[in-house]
Amino acid sequence: MERISFESYIRSFEVFGQYSEEYGYQLEHLLALEDNLKEGFSILDIGAGTGFFVRDFLDRCKIEASHYTAVEPSIDHVNKLKKNLNGFSLELDVYNTIFTPETVLDRKFDLIIMSHSLYWFLPNPEPFILNALNFLKNDGRVVMYLQTPYTASHILNLLFDKKLPKNRAPSHEINSWTIMDLLDRNDINYKISNLPGTFQANDIFKKKNQKMLDEVISFFFAVEARSLDKKTRSRAEEAMKMLSYKQGDDLKLNMEVGAITIY
Hints:
Blueprint: H1 6-19, E1 20-21, H2 23-31, E2 41-46, H3 52-60, E3 65-71, H4 75-84, E4 91-95, E5 109-115, H5 125-133, E6 136-147, H6 152-159, H7 176-185, E7 190-195, E8 198-200, H8 210-221, H9 230-243, E9 245-247, E10 250-254, E11 257-262
Parallel strand pairs: 2-3, 2-5, 3-4, 5-6
Antiparallel strand pairs: 1-8, 6-11, 7-11, 8-10, 9-10
Helix pairs in contact: 1-8, 2-3
């Protein structure tokens, strides 16, 4: 069984993103924090992706930011990020690299965002998060978005735990409980909000879209779906169908988001 490559993960993420219905809820949650921000605030975005999330936040935020630092390992995402933030009056620093427990930055920030990047903080997210907190101003906020234990992706990984290789990256076994437990161990104050999140599954189970379904399976399992044996691949599809539910005419998978705010 072949672990997913970073390039394949980026491709499968793009397929997943086309059908994901969670970012609107995340955006409203992040905008609710603007009362805690001051004019000219600074942002550190760890695992910034293509920058569309922070672009939409900056576009709607009533308070103007002055500085944005992004840490993003995908060069393709970095290029898209720069285009997405073109037109904002920001001091911009973009690092095409991974964030590690040893990462050093030359400033502190009012707002630190980690949106679905914690699955890469392996083998233990604790030193990564503690290092990120080194770059937070005393009155700043950290916001982390990741799956709850009740999501389809987490349940699928539990169902197939004995079949899948260990030490996969990213790890969808990391969830909001994982992060809350480590914050509790370190006496770090936080608030948790569970936000709605779904994956629109109407198209992926159509016979003509088997390649698309393989991309989603690869995304959830962090292995190449084509490397699964026939029985495991068939059971993965069956499990995804059984985890799906009807909402009107739509077929959906639960992708509830845990929004953790450190203050």
